[in-house]
Amino acid sequence: MSYVTLNYPFEPLEAPPEYRGRPRIDPKLCVGCGACSRVCPSDAIIVEDNYRDGLRRIKLDISRCIRCACCEEACPTGAIKLTREFELASPRKEDFTQIFELRLVKCSICGKPSDYTVRQVEKAKQILSHLPKEEVDEIIKRITVCRECRRKKTIRTTFESIPILGLIRA
Amino acid sequence: MIMRLVSLCVAIVIALVFPLIFDGIGRKIKARIQYRMGPPIFQTIYDVSKLLKTPYLVSGGLMFILAPCIAFASALASITMLPVGGISPISFSYDIFVFLYVEAMVSISLMLAGFSVQNIYANAGANRETMLILSTEPILGVALAMLALLTKRLSIEGIAYTIGVIDYRLLPLVLIAYMMLVYIVYIEGGFIPFDLTEAETEILGGPLCEYSGRLLALFKWALLIKRFTLIWLLASLITIPSVAPAFSRINTVFSYILVLLFQLFIALVLYCSIVANEAFTARYKIDHVISLNKRVFLVSIIFFIVIAVLTL
Amino acid sequence: MKWTIDRVIEIIKAKFGKYIKDMYRPMANQVIIVMDKSAAPKATLFLLKEAGVPEPQLSTVVGTDERPIRGMFSIIYWVSVNAEGGDAWIGIKTYLHEDDLKIESITPLHPGANWYEREIRDLLGIIPVNHPDPRRLVLPDDFPKNIYPLRKEYDYRSKPTVTPRHVFKRPAEGTVIVPFGPYHAACDEPYHFRLYVKGEEIVDADYRGFYNHRGIEKLAESRLTYNQIPFIAERICGICGFVHSTAYCQAVENAMGIDVPERARYIRTIMLEIERIESHLLWIGIACHLAGFDTGFMHAWRIREKDMWLAERLTGNRKTYGLNVIGGVRRDILEYRKSLALNTLSELKREYKEFVDMLSSTKSFIKRCEGVGVLPYNKAVAYSTTGPTARGSGRRIDVRKDHPYAAYGELDFKVPVYKDGDVLARAMVRIDEVWESIWIIEQALDKLPGGPLRAEIKRIEPYREALSYDEAPRGENVHYVMLGRGNKVYRWKVRAPTYNNLPAVPEMLKGYTIADAPLIIASIDPCFSCTERVLVIDVRTGEKKAYTEREFNYLSIRKSRR
């Protein structure tokens, strides 16, 4: 005779394998792309850049999480996964947040922090590994510029691309 | 005299403790019928003791505070008139009326509690209780009157001891009186399908909906003791006729304990069968109950006349 | 001659031809006819009462603030044709100018439109002229009078409040008022029914609801993208979440003509039916509990546990499945789960049969349900009731059969209809539907086709509109979507089935006792959370600033300058 009620919490209870529990980010795998934060319906993941210290801070607040697993689908490296944990009650708010920081790569022109993390650059190199090394380095140098430098570069190249203006400048 | 005092103490202790344990056993049985694990058997004791420690809010006048105390006192008082271990602590020749009276005080205090607050749900519950009492007390009266006629005694102890030795030709009538008594116990005990007064899902607990804390604990306890008392009456009327003659030959104390245990056992069996029946019925509406009671009353009057003719 | 949508269009053209300004077909079975303001209510009433179409139903009335698009407000009256009427949804649309926001009310002749017109008045400010009961419906009592949340200038984060005041119906001579809710042991969601009683008999009833009003439509318009809305749609209701997310996805798919792959449609069907089983079993348990029959309650929920457990194995959660996206589903039903589902269903069938036998032999319970809360057929049609409430009164309507969606067109099942109109009839409809649902799931699992799970979506064209519909456990659930720019919807209207069924409850309560009231209210299987979502006002933060109309308008002008 099996009862429909169990002796939980006096005996342990395990969730089935398909259960969607709290998400956890593996900081070693995360590249800081922010895809999870963009897709999250409840803004449980917040990605903020700190340009002064050159750090990207990723904050996961599972008290806002609705366990939809959209972040797990969007993550390119498999860093964030939903575990099977459901016994999460705690009197401290800190137990619900996971915060870590990734270093932003330096701008190739002025040396200030740009909008990409070091890991993103490494992942890009990995994706482009079928091209020769010098070409890859050239591409990376062109992309990793900070906002200021990018604006200046864009204006300069636009200016230079218009023949008349180029003549005037010359 | 000493035996009566001892019996009184035993009766009070039993009345305080066993109704709660029986209620716990009842909940466990209902849970098992419903394929659940159910609360532990002492859960009702835990509940009542916790409620006793909680402060209470007063929403009515003096009656609001007095009603649970009256109910509790009457419930305890009523068991002292029943045979406990074969000896009734309080017994005199006309005590059957007093028993009826004191037993009814519990219901009446429930009614008064319902009318003492300005709450439509409490009033509705008190209304229902009034209608229930008005329709069941007559039947209880007739049932006990039948037993009184059959045994020519008007005290409960006397009836219990005499039933065993009456003329065997009157046994069918005794059985009919017993069946009516069972019916009464069912209604007055407030078992499903007759738990209209405190219907939680319909009228939010009826007269009890404004009660909290210690007063609520007293009321709940009183209602459970009343239930237990009625079952005890039935159990005594079964135990004493069957075993008392046999045990009269043994030492008094020993026979006392044996009869007491036997009474407890029969009470438990009766309670469990009632609870098992409870698990399989829904609640009746007040008009159903009243029309049912009317019919039972008419039938009981007919039997009463038959018995009166045969015995007088 | 068989009824088709074209025939209905012909009939309307014949009578109202000169008032028709425009007509277009968002989908094969839906038509939007744009008419003059003076003719639109008349045309709606004509369709509902005189046209002779089979089982006409006023499914929903959508009000939209279309001033950013074309400078006017719009109302669409959606009428559906059911039973032998074929698959037809007629939307009669009319535009109103901001300075003349009045329209003739159709409530005096069709009581089912009562709530729709009050809601549009509360949220958009369009006044129904000659409405018999123009009280506030949706917004809380302490919401200021001239502020209309669904207008585009209203920011979804604002919290205006004034002192609260609500007017109830006056009690008749000699009656006593029995308040029912918002807190009551029998209410699982907050609502307030006022019962006017004489002794124990109910003479009249008044309803004040929308305590669960959360502002989901405004939220979705303001800060969610297309693929994030299914998650909030799922949380509209505590039991029937999947029907809402499916209906929303279907609305967008209908508007853009996206073809959902077959496998996705079958998976949606399976999950919809699993939800129906668990909802009906929950209801049976609640009905038993309210009648005092706790054993029935416990056994019904015990059997329901098997269904919930199955849902958890298939989707990862007992209730919020998170399966739907626009164009298909996100998760597959793999082989080992198929056999798990079939085993669970056969166990469920066995236990359910024992349970139904026990229930039908419990005379005391049957006596509580029989002859109680009767809703006659003509009243059921007048209030446009839907689902088991309507089928218990003899209306042969079911969205799965009349307007097939997902995979229902390819599956075989019956629709139970009972004529008595009492609580027992509605209970029997639900009990029979559980058998049909199990049969549907078995067929769908058996026929589950292969193929992709999602359709590829190239682009979303703004300002296209469409309707979608499905059969929730409580009845016909209708969503209307107008697509917008920037990956957001422009207007999303959710009309849950209880919205149509609740106005009929005061009719069902008259003449019965207080003891019957919880059972009658529960017999329409009310889902108050589904019924009430447009805008949230948080009174509890203590923000009690009373904005005058000038201050408030100034705020909105200032915002658009930025």
Spatial shape of chain B: globular
Beta-strand percentage range of chain A: 15-25%
Question: Which oligomeric state applies?
Answer: heterotrimer
Q: Report the mean per-residue pLDDT of chain B as an integer.
A: 86
Q: What is the overall shape of chain A? A: elongated
State the distance separating the first and last CA atoms of chain A.
Answer: 93 Å
Which class of chain A in CATH terms? Alpha Beta
- In what range is the share of β-strand residues of chain B? under 5%
Number of strands of chain A: 6
Structural class of chain A: alpha+beta
> What is the count of DSSP helices of chain A, taking H or I runs of 4+ residues?
6
Total separate domains of chain A: 1
CATH architecture of chain A: 2-Layer Sandwich
* Greatest interface and its participating residue counts: B-C, 30 and 32 residues
Biggest β-sheet of chain B, characterized? none
Pick out the low-confidence regions of chain B. none
Q: Radius of gyration of chain B, rounded?
A: 20 Å
Count structural domains of chain B: 1
CATH fold type of chain A: Alpha-Beta Plaits
Description:
- The complex is a heterotrimer of chains A (170), B (312) and C (562).
- Chain A has 170 residues and is α+β, with helices and mostly antiparallel strands.
- Helices cover 31% and strands 20% of the residues of chain A.
- Chain A has one domain (23-169): 2-Layer Sandwich (Alpha-Beta Plaits), CATH 3.30.70.
- Chain B is an all-alpha fold.
- Chain B has helices spanning 2-33, 43-53, 62-79, 95-115, 120-151, 156-163, 171-188, 200-203, 213-247, 252-278, 286-311.
- Chain B is globular.
- With 562 residues, chain C is an alpha+beta fold.
- The longest helix of chain C has 29 residues, at 262-290.
